[in-house]
């Protein structure tokens, strides 16, 4: 069971799963945990949306006209754009990934409304009445995503989110890897609310979430968020790799793997104390 693994198991790399290479699965007592070598390390792999996914951008008002909300492909987004998030319109200050040349594996989550959210398997999305932060690859049929239609409210207000049940999931290969970082910490992609972040797991106490992976990732990126708010040029192209990843994020990937590795084993603090 991808959502409720054996309580006494240790997390290992699940190469056989087509959606998510780093899910929790039972591990025999005589086996050793491995660290997601299939995705390039504990923090490795794409953490993004494909090039054809769209965000809603708030265009500045032209003389004599009101501000306009327009759809824009992920590949066309730029630092400084005001895009729709779960908290309203928020400015992009940097990118986790921004590469139109690559092709990556994504999970497509089709919903009862006929819409779909497509994200990398380890990207964090929000599901259920409590809007739990989970990996897109761990979403199953029956889970509810949160949909926001910007046409239903004035452009200046936060969107009203409504649940939309997942009816089908599948793995797809698509071009592009794009993940904007907003000051709000979330983004609305193809109408669905999602986190800016990926790969980071939360800490649990049994069935209760002590701190979500989304919140942990927000904390890890708070220095960059603060710095870009103070000096926006720190989010400029010269501070991103050739693949469009901000150097701060790259530094976290290069140096934070040990921390996430511990979390993969000791993410449930209650279980860890028993063991």
UniProtKB/TrEMBL annotation:
InterPro entries: Hedgehog_Hint (IPR001767), Hedgehog_Signaling (IPR050387), Hint_dom_sf (IPR036844). GO terms for molecular function: calcium ion binding; patched binding. CDD domains: Hint. Transmembrane segments: none annotated. One of its GO terms (cellular component) is extracellular space. Residues 48-213 form the Hedgehog protein Hint domain. GO terms for biological process: cell fate specification; protein autoprocessing; regulation of gene expression; smoothened signaling pathway. It comes from the Eukaryota. This is Hedgehog protein Hint domain-containing protein. It comes from Zooxanthella nutricula.
